[in-house]
Amino acid sequence: MSTPKLPAMALALGLGSGAALAAGPNLGIPLEPADIAAWDISIQPDGTGLPIGGGTPAQGARIFAQKCALCHGENGKGGVFAALVGGAPLSGGIDTPKTIANFWGYPTTVFDFIRRAMPWQQPRSLTDNEVYALTAFILAQNKLIGEDDSMNAETLPKVRMPNRDGFIIRFPDKI
Ligand code: HEC
Q1: In which region does residue 56 sit, left (phi positive, over 0), alpha (psi from -120 to 50) or beta (all else)?
Q2: Are 137 and 129 spatial neighbours (Cβ–Cβ below 8 Å)?
Q3: Most buried of the four, 42, 81, 127, 135, by CB within 10 Å?
Q4: What residue ranges do the domains of the chain occupy?
Q5: Does ligand 1 come within 6 angstroms of the Cβ of 70?
Q6: Residue 59 near residue 133, CB atoms below 8 Å
Q7: Are 128 and 63 in contact (CB under 8 A)?
Q8: Residue 99 and residue 103: Cα distance in Å, rounded?
Q9: Which of 44, 43, 52, 41 shows the shortest CA–CA distance to 154?
């Protein structure tokens, strides 16, 4: 049905995109490095990107009770949403719920995820110190660090997650 129209359409598209590329769509504004920095918040497994600051499990416990327990249950045991503590061994099969303790490969992901996504209704509202404290609290609740261990850019990447070696690295030469 539309076959006869195709050559004309291809020609039109070809000409159109060539012109558009040359001139540019003239949309948007130039970004300053500071604008980009506000969004460039990824943390690498080795700790690259972690900000200055720090926090302890005890500090995190207070923040958790105020801002997180509502959804994740008292002390992260699970509530309306995911449990952040515990989890059955993954050897139970593919349907075993994956948790921080039984699945996540790197402690830095806990920091990264909380900072960019939580609390659910107000992402990016926590200070870096609060995120460190909450990360410390969750790791301590999972018995992955001690009750008094402070988490910061030095200590956090050194925490070894139980499932650290449970992943098949797709591009081993890239790490
Ligand atoms: C309004 C509800 C709500 C609040 C409050 C909330 N969360 Fe969440 N959280 C969620 C939802 C929804 C998910 C995604 C659940 C899922 O993946 O099953 C989630 C996921 C998470 C995860 C990833 C869990 C996993 O194993 O995938 C972490 C870590 C987390 N939240 C931490 C926090 C922290 C810390 C706070 C407090 C600062 C917080 N959340 C407050 C709703 C909430």
Answers
A1: beta
A2: no
A3: 135
A4: 33-167
A5: yes
A6: yes
A7: no
A8: 5
A9: 52
Q: Is 100 in the pocket of ligand 1 (CB under 6 A)?
A: yes
Per-residue pLDDT at 21: 57
Q: Does domain 33-167 have CATH number 3.40.50.2300?
A: no
What is the 14 CA–ligand 1 centroid distance (Å)? 47
CA distance 2 to 41: 48
Q: Hunting for tokens 């870096």 — which residue is that?
A: 128
Pair of tokens at residue 91: 């050897």
Evaluate whether 159 touches 80 at the Cβ level (below 8 Å): no
Name the pTM for this structure.
0.85
CB atoms under 10 Å from CB of 69, counted, come to: 16
Q: Which one of 43, 59, 67, 72 would you pick to mutate in the ligand 1 pocket, going by the greatest count of ligand atoms within 8 A of its CB?
A: 72
Q: Kindly report the average pLDDT of the chain as a whole number.
A: 89
Output the six-digit token pair for 102.
């039984």
| pLDDT of 74 higher than 80 | yes
Which tokens sit at 89?
């061994």
